[in-house]
Each structure stands twice: as structure tokens, then as C-alpha cells.
Amino acid sequence: MKHNYDLHSHSTVSDGVLSPAALVRRALEKGVDVLALTDHDEVAGFRPAAEEAAKRGLGLLAGVEVSVSWRKQTVHIVGLDVDPDHTGLSQGLAGLREYRHWRGEEIGRRLEKAGGMGAYAGALAQCKGDLLTRTHYGRFLLEAGVVDQLQGAFKHYLLRGKPGYVPGKWASLEQAVGWINAAGGVAVVAHPARYGMTRTRLR
User: Fold this and answer.
1) Rounded to an integer, what distance in angstroms lies between the CA atom of residue 68 and that of residue 28?
2) What average pLDDT values come out for the chain (203 residues) when binned by 10 residues?
């Protein structure tokens, strides 16, 4: 029997646009049989998603997308089928979220210095959870008409060398994989084609 899987999704707990419960409903509408909720550096959305999934018969995996600093670049590692209550994983992710809070504010400070725009307040208005991310800044810049597509916000304002760029200081690859494995999960590289790596480097 064929099943449809979506093993990388975000809710408003990080930078998604749907609440965990609404995400479950959308997945069912789109014919997904098994969904993994993999918010950035956070597992708090799993419980409300699990309650909705249980009522509606959707297979749900607890997951997370961990930000990693590896060889002078940022990569994302997805953890699938983790125990969301595992102490080591929870403590590791809490440290990343603390840094994210500072980074979110620092992006706003740098954009204000570069020309105002009310970027920090605008990004906060886009944020429906506790984690302020670059995507929220991108959505604000798009909505404000500063750019005409979301990718343009990153290209002109948020990537390395641009006014709102803040270098990431994330977990090491060894830490991220260790947290995921200790929590019973499987670690995989998220969106590997995005990093522009050679085949050798990616391996």
C-alpha cells in the first residue's frame, strides 16, 4: 500500500504560517499520510499537533530541524522520530533558542542602522510564536514593498555581506547528531541541494 510522506514541515512555533493543529489539517487535505513536524530548534509544537493527528488519523512523527555551524557555513540537520521530552535534546535546543532571540534582535538593530524601515517591529508582527527568524524579516520586507519576492529579501538584506546579516553561532555537527541520536531519532541533512556543496563535500 502506497503512503505519502512529508518529513520536513514547520508551524508557527518557528517560521511556519500555520499552527501545529492547522498544519495537521492541511497535511490531510493535501493527501499526506505521515507527517513529521520539524520546527527550527524547537519541539513544543508536537503535543498540539499530536492531539489533532490522533483525532483525525494522521501518522505523526516528532521531529526538529537543528541549526549547525560546520566548516564555516550553516547547515540544517533534521531529526526524525525523536523523543520530544528527552532531557539532552531539550537542553541543547534551549541553548540554540537563546541565541536565536539575541540574533533576531541584532538583525533588527543592523537593519535599522542601515536605513530604518521599522524592520524589527515589522518582523515581530509577522512572528506568531516565540522564535524570531530571518524568514519573518523577509516576509516583512516583502509585505512592506521593499522587495518584490521573498528570496530578494535574503539576497539583498539578510545573506552574508548584506546589511542585516548576522553570522550564525550554532551547534556543532557532532552535538546536533548526538542530541538527535540520544533522543532515539535519526539525523539527516535538510535540503542538501541548497548549500552549493560539491559532491565530495556533501558526502
Assistant:
1) 31
2) 92 96 98 98 98 97 97 94 98 96 95 87 90 93 93 93 92 98 98 90 85
Verdict on whether the full-model pTM lies above 0.85: yes
Contact indicator for 32, 51 with CB cutoff of 8 Å: no
Closest CA to 39 of 153, 106, 103, 131: 131
Q: What are the strands, taking DSSP E only, across the chain?
A: 5-9, 34-37, 59-70, 73-80, 186-189
Lookup: cell for 154:
535574503
Task: Give Dmax (Cα) for the chain.
Answer: 57
Taking a C-beta distance cutoff of 8 angstroms, is the pair 180, 186 a contact?
yes
Q: CA distances (Å), 86 to each of 37, 67, 77, 91, 119, in order?
A: 16, 18, 17, 9, 36
Question: In Å, how far are 69, 74, 121, 122 from 105, measured between CA atoms?
Answer: 20, 19, 10, 12
